[in-house]
Structures are given as structure tokens and as C-alpha cells.
Amino acid sequence: MNRLFSHFEEGFLNLLITSMTLLVFIEVIARFFFNTGFLWIQELTLTICAWFVLFGMSYGVKVGAHIGVDAFVTKLPKGGRKLAGLIATTICLIYCIMFLKGSWDYLLKMYEVGIPMEDLNLPSLLIQNLDPDFAWDTLRIDIEEPAVPLWLSQSILILGFGLLFLRFSELFIAIATNKADGFTLADEAEDSMHLADTVKEALGLDQDKQDKPLNPNNKDEK
């Protein structure tokens, strides 16, 4: 089950970033080559970007992609690292709870008022099959102006912070049961040095190929 959900996370994030890239590409082509644009593309791109960030932050905790400062924590003994990890995850859980409460209140207000998005409308085929009373009473969709309801597009606030809460809960349990010392953080310096070494090796190999003289006795090198 965990593996299946992990594949879903990766696939969904790939879908979001690919969709956002294609939308931006289309908008750039339309503006620079056809002197036009699409307002709905801008709004949809911003919405997808928000979904990508808020959905991806929990995945970042899972794979250790977030950046943090652990220079002090790494100097502590094992018991100290465990205590620091428990305190940090507790603070993060409180942070998630606060945002979940605020997000719920905000989305509930958007739902009650029925505020729609400005330029992003639902497909006409979907609207034609909706009962007007059900559309407004349940979904807060106005059939005459079928814009995507704001509460629906921003529901990632609840989903994103809910997943982040679960990730931090798993990390808290792992630290408490001595299965982990603390957060797994990305090391930009190490990644940069690794990238630099890779580029240097590639350039070195290319230079060797350029500097290697041809052997006139070898027909294969002519």
C-alpha cells in the first residue's frame, strides 16, 4: 500500500510539473509569436503551481529533499539528537495543526459565500449534466456562470498540510522508536560538489578525445 501511494505521489507530481511547463510554453508562444494570450492559462498555471508546492512538501519530508541547518545538532550525542528531533517534529506538528485550522476556516468561508475563480470555467459538457439546485447547494457552482469554485481549487491547503502532518507524525514515531535520529536533509554543498565533479569528468573526457592524435597506421581512426 505504501509503495502504491509512493508511485501515486511521484506520478501526480510529475503530472503537475509537466502540465505547468506545457501551459507556460503555450502562453509564451501565444504572446511572442501571435501577440495574444489566455487569462485562464495564467490562473490555471498559478493553481497548478500551488498544488505542486503544497502537495510536494510532504513528499520532500519523505525523501529528505528539504534544506535545513544541522551544524549544531550533528555535534550532539545520540540522546541529544533524539531529543532535538522530537522537539523539532513536535513544533512542525503544531505548525501543521495551526495551518489546518486556518485553512479549514478559510475554505469554509469561501464555500459558504460561493466565491468563484476569475477566469477559469468548468467544461460545458460537465455543466450541462448538472442539476442547477445541486450544483449551487452542494458544489457552489453557478450554472449561468460556471466558474470553478475557489474552495475546490484551493482545497490543496487541507490536503497538503494533512499529508505533511502525517509525514511528521511518521517521523516523530520513527525518532521515538530509535528508527531515525532526526530529519533527513538535503545537502546543497555536497550535491553541488558532486555535480561539479561530474561536469569536470565529462569535460575531461571530451578534452581527452580532442587531444588524442590520430594514428595513421590504424584505419579505424582515420
From TrEMBL:
It is found in: Cell inner membrane. One of its GO terms (molecular function) is transmembrane transporter activity. The chain crosses the membrane at residues 12-34, 40-61, 82-100, 148-166. InterPro entries: DctQ, TRAP_DctQ. Residues 203-222 are annotated as: Disordered. The complex comprises the extracytoplasmic solute receptor protein and the two transmembrane proteins. This is TRAP transporter small permease protein. It comes from Shewanella psychrophila.
